[in-house]
Amino acid sequence: MSDHTIPANSSFQLSLIITEKCNLNCDYCFCNKSMNRSMSPATARSLIGQALAEYSGSIETLNILLMGGEPFLEFELIRDLVKWVRTTYPEQQIKFKAVTNGTLVHGEIQDWLLSNSDLFSAELSLDGTEEDHNSYRSGSFDSIDFAFFHNKLKHPVVSTVVSPATLDHMAGNIISLAETGFRIKAVLADGVDWASQEPAGRLAQQLMKLIEFYLKSPSLYPFSLLSFATWAVNDPEAVTACQPGINSIAADTAGNRLACHRSSSYYNTGKWKIPGESIALQEPGYLNEACASCCIRHLCHSCPASVASIKNDAEQSRTSCLMSKVLFTANAWFHLRLLTENPDHRFLRHRSNSQKRAMLTGSKFILDNLNPDVPF
């Protein structure tokens, strides 16, 4: 799959687009909805076997992300793959994961997830309160069994997408999910026009609300956009970013191997389309020349596909850069306040003293050197 080598005892992710079908039509989704294919069991098995043959000597765990569309439209394929892996590779560390809209996870699928939780985890894709979720996610809120995802699964995780339309509600949506007890992963929507939305100041306002919320909630782990690795600002080896073809690979429904899922014809559409010359994503570079000397260059823009998509679009690139500066400034401010005001917070509880010192130093470094031109 790749001529590169990866560090021994590390993990490797194989992302399989097992279906292009979806039972929802989310407003911000930029996938090619004219496509309607699914992966065959033989193709999926072959791709897993190839990954294990090439990397089993150098990786500790093969992580398999099953993607769509909606993955559980192909429940039979999922069930057969997990059963096949159990019998064919009983000694190999293999973990499956799918992010699902949850609308199909009932009855038999729930029973199966519970009985296969040692190998398979499911994360719920949810965008906040019922009103906001339904506005952009095909009115699907009432079709989700929240009690199952929250109470029955070992590690309840919600993946939420923040779009320009929901940005001003981000704090309220995240707080509602956090108070329910979910661990929250959040991303800013890819493939959409952020430049015309003047998002930086709006993002800063929402982050400040969330900082105050988490400072007053010491038992809650902060959502992902306030959990950046500020301790690694001056230690680029401390964080392993996504490296397409090195620590990850993807495949489309036909079995074509790709740098990442964003390189597929199903995902690589819309405004943030990867240019043909950059589709391999081996050297996507920076958004602009200023990135090369930026104080957060080692941690910023860990998604090579996003960089490749917009680096030749001056307005989108400028806006993306400014939003990253806002995010890192908010993280630095938040982490400094945690260390000084709430040292027993869950975010700090299991960190070593050396990492806490690095967090303090890194946060101060960011605040001293990064100017997002947005008041905090």
Strand order of the largest sheet: 6-5-4-3-2-1-7-8
Number of helices: 11
Distance between the ends: 45 Å
Indicate the radius of gyration in whole angstroms: 21 Å
Tally of DSSP β-strands: 8
Tell me the series of helices and strands, N- to C-terminal.
EHEHEHEHHEHEHEEHHHH
Which percent range describes the beta-strand content? Answer: 5-15%
Structural class: alpha/beta
Biggest β-sheet: count, sense, barrel?
8 strands, mixed
What is the oligomeric state here?
single chain
Mean pLDDT: 92
Q: How are the SSEs ordered, and which strands pair?
A:
Blueprint: E1 10-17, H1 41-55, E2 59-67, H2 75-88, E3 94-100, H3 107-115, E4 120-125, H4 130-136, H5 146-152, E5 157-162, H6 170-180, E6 183-188, H7 199-215, E7 248-251, E8 257-258, H8 304-310, H9 314-341, H10 346-349, H11 353-369
What are the defining features of this structure?
single chain, 376 residues, alpha/beta, 8-stranded mixed beta sheet, 13% strand, globular
Folded structure, characterized:
It is a single chain. This protein is an alpha/beta fold and 376 residues long. A hairpin with a 5-residue loop joins strand 7 and strand 8. The chain has an 8-stranded mixed sheet with strand order 6-5-4-3-2-1-7-8, covered by helices on one side. It has helices spanning 41-55, 75-88, 107-115, 130-136, 146-152, 170-180, 199-215, 304-310, 314-341, 346-349, 353-369; strands at 10-17, 59-67, 94-100, 120-125, 157-162, 183-188, 248-251, 257-258. The protein contains 11 helices and 8 strands.
Task: Explain briefly what this protein structure is.
By secondary structure, this protein is an alpha/beta fold. Helix content is 36%, strand content 13%. Helix 6 runs parallel beside helix 7 (199-215) and helix 7 runs parallel beside helix 9 (314-341).
